[in-house]
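Lecture notes, unit on protein representations.

Consider one protein chain, 64 amino acids long.
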Amino acid sequence: MEEPNGSHEPYCETPDRTPTAAGGPPFADCVLCRKPTEYPESVKGVTLCPVCEWQEAQRTACSG
């Protein structure tokens, strides 16, 4: 089945953001799970991967 964008690739595929991705800076590790984040290593402060960032937002939204 052909996707809406005219190709056979998944419509919502996310780009690879691992530190070995060509052309990207070395990415900082998540302080909770140690997976690569979307932030370069030069960013100061707490860096979280997208999953941990979302979970932290859920915790703070429900903490009253």
